[in-house]
Design a protein that fits this description.
heterodimer; A: mainly alpha; ABC transporter involved in vitamin B12 uptake, BtuC; 2% strand; globular; B: mainly alpha; disordered N terminus
Chain lengths: 344, 334
């Protein structure tokens, strides 16, 4: 890292100078984000004394996980200079498809069909962005309309059929992990959300994939300098094709968790998540212009947004004020980030 | 552009040459116009009774989105994008309806105040982008929460009122019944604001900062101020769109519909480049009319409205793919 090569005058830690701070923010955006998260948690404890507990943390984590997965879709596409606005439509569709199919079909087959549908949407996104060079904003926007329309039409066909949200989804979306000890189910403390079973491996794959695999490196390279990527012989259209399919699969997983978490499968289930998912990625230090960022920050960003939402409702503000403050805080955090790192 | 050498006005150019040059320079808009005429003929074919009332209804339905789209086009031409446009329209609509109900006798002053408010709201967005140096898409995304929340603060449920003269402004026709008043209003508004603007120094600066910010800066354009001005004009057109919604519905509602996404879709169909610096507002307006007419046709054909949503998405993707395919082929041919 560049920190190691920089001379530290008068033997002080390089982090104690203004430039050192700036470098730390740029190299390790996760450190100030975790500090911000801690401050927010302390604020919450001040507003509602005695509320912050392992149980509360479990609820926050469980609420944040679908948002964190959708933020992952935005991170991987934003690294290439793209964006995926179809995630909400895809997530709603997969949750809804499984809930309406599961009465007649096996859960496994229903999930497979939902994943295939999501993958198809993602592939078409990838073809548009990679082969036809359509602007990702427009491509994923149009695809979102198409998916939303098909889901609605499907809803009319299957209006009274299907077995509802399967119990397996409800368990992974909302239950705490339990262990069978001595015949009875005993909650382990602190209550760990079952959705972590799905999220932790997924997050590790993304983190590892972005840092250590050639494919992950290519994503950064495409966002940083697409011409250099082409001249060095990589076929970026293939990379983008796979990328948008991966993004759709992740959205599908988020859709399963969301429908299980609220025990409702509706065609507009994930609609309110698309803007916060972009916000979480941006707060987490991923540049919307491509080439810079990572998933770790986005996970903390999703936690920060969830705690902010909890904090604003704990303060007893009406919905309108909450929305205004939410937006203002996102602008403020993004502005502070840009100011400190000196990147515009 | 390679066509730069051909744009000199040589003496003695025949009108036919000038016409063919116009068609070549505006090929996309001309294509859209042909598509629009074909669609109108098709509408007449499937619905033989489609006549002046249908056209008048179409014009009233098109007006708010067309005005919003002009605003979005100005910002995108200047190299930005505003994802809070729908929330801004919602906010201004409820303010306008509330004020007109409270002060019915001062409605002209209210309308003028609303236009100023629109410019102010837009300038706030632009100012935040310039001051914070955060990308446009992020700031306006966050501001979409702020303006939507502000709209809810003013009115929780639909309410308020619209001045009678404002309602009358949209209804009926001018001279002959095939020319709806709403369409004339649109032409007048765009003609009075956009055409002089485009020919002015400021309008040229919009195109300049959109196509190359550094080059614009080095040729003496104040990039920050121009950017704020482009967002202020978006706010002005958002206010006009909001007033037309208030006039049409007779009230204000904090949830007005998906103007943000539809306006972005329309400008892209209309030939404005999302990269900035290219395109105009007329193609975008034609695109709005085409999209609305397709929606009406699907209703005539009894197509499921959800499949109409699918069709909108497919048309959007298909046309844009076609456009970028043309672009790619042109680059290869060079």
């Amino acid at each position: 890292m560049s920190v190691a090569t920089a001379p530290a005058p008068s033997g002080r830690s390089p982090y104690l100078t203004a430039a050192g701070w700036r470098r730390m923010f740029r190299d390790r955006p996760i450190v100030p984000l975790v500090v911000l998260l801690a401050i927010l948690v302390v604020l919450y404890e001040l507003v509602r004394p005695g509320q912050v507990s392992p149980g509360w943390a479990g609820v926050i984590v469980r609420t944040a996980i679908p948002l964190a997965i959708l933020a992952g879709c935005q991170v991987i596409t934003m690294l290439t200079g793209g964006i995926d606005l179809s995630v909400s439509a895809v997530a709603s569709m997969t949750g809804f498809l499984v809930a309406t199919l599961v009465g007649d079909l096996d859960l496994g087959i229903a999930i497979l069909i939902a994943l295939l549908a999501a993958g198809l949407a993602g592939l078409i996104n990838g073809i548009g962005v990679g082969v036809f060079r359509v602007h990702p904003l427009i491509m994923s926007l149009g695809m979102g309309l198409v998916v939303f329309g098909f889901t609605n039409a499907w809803q009319l066909i299957r209006v009274q059929s299907g077995g509802g949200v399967p119990t397996e989804f409800r368990w992974i979306g909302s239950a705490p992990l339990t262990f069978a000890i001595g015949g009875g189910d005993v909650n382990i403390l602190p209550p760990i959300p079952a959705s972590l079973l799905l999220f932790v491996p997924l997050a590790l794959i993304i983190l590892f994939g972005l840092r250590r695999t050639g494919y992950g490196r290519l994503l950064y390279a495409i966002g940083d300098n697409p011409i250099a990527v082409r001249l060095s012989g990589a076929r970026s259209w293939q990379v983008l094709l796979v990328l948008y399919a991966i993004s759709a699969f992740m959205a599908a997983i988020a859709g399963f968790l969301l429908s299980g978490g609220v025990n409702v499968a509706s065609v507009t289930l994930a609609d309110s998540y698309v803007l916060p998912s972009v916000a979480a990625a941006v707060i987490g230090g991923t540049s919307i212009l491509g080439g810079r960022g990572g998933y770790g920050g986005a996970i903390v960003g999703a936690l920060i947004l969830t705690v902010i939402t909890a904090l604003l409702s704990a303060l007893g503000f009406p919905e309108a004020v909450r929305q205004v403050l939410f937006g203002a805080i996102i602008v403020a955090v993004a502005a502070a980030y840009t100011r400190v790192t000196g990147e515009g | 552009m390679s066509a730069a050498t051909e744009t000199f006005d040589e003496p003695g150019v025949s009108p036919a040459d000038a016409a063919s040059r116009f068609v070549r320079d505006n090929a996309w808009t001309v294509g859209l116009l042909i598509l629009l005429v074909a669609l109108l003929a098709f509408t007449r074919f499937i619905q033989p009774t489609y006549g002046p009332p249908g056209i008048q209804g179409l014009a009233i339905a098109v007006l708010p989105l067309a005005l919003a789209t002009v605003g979005q086009a100005i910002v995108v031409i200047s190299g930005g994008i505003d994802l809070s446009l729908g929330s801004i329209i919602a906010f201004i609509t409820v303010v306008a309806a509330t004020l007109m109900k409270a002060y019915p006798e001062l409605s002209i002053l209210v309308v003028l105040g609303i236009l100023l408010l629109g410019m102010l709201v837009g300038a706030v967005n632009g100012g935040l982008i310039v001051i914070t140096r955060v990308p446009d898409i992020v700031v306006t995304l966050a501001m979409s929460f702020v303006w939507a929340g502000a709209a809810l603060l003013v009115l929780k449920t639909p309410g308020g009122a619209a001045a009678d003269w404002l309602k009358e402004l949209l209804k009926g026709y001018v001279l002959i019944e095939w020319v709806p008043r709403a369409a004339v209003l649109l032409v007048v508004i765009v003609g009075v604001i956009w055409i002089p603007l485009r020919r002015s120094r400021l309008g040229l600066s919009f195109y300049a900062i959109g196509s190359n910010q550094l080059a614009a800066f080095r040729s003496g354009v104040s990039v920050g101020r121009t950017k704020i001005a482009s967002y202020a004009f978006l706010g002005l057109f958002a206010a006009l769109a909001a007033l037309s919604i208030t006039a049409n519905t007779g009230q204000g509602s904090p949830s007005v519909g998906q103007y943000t996404l539809q306006s972005v879709a329309a400008i892209v169909l209309g030939g404005v480049s999302l990269a900035g610096g290219r395109g105009g507002v007329f193609g975008a307006i034609v695109a709005v009319i085409i999209l609305q007419l397709i929606r009406a046709d699907m209703a005539f054909l009894n197509v499921n409205s959800n499949l109409a949503t699918v069709a909108n998405g497919v048309i959007l993707i298909g046309v844009v793919m076609f456009g970028s395919l043309l672009q790619i082929r042109r680059e290869r041919a060079r």
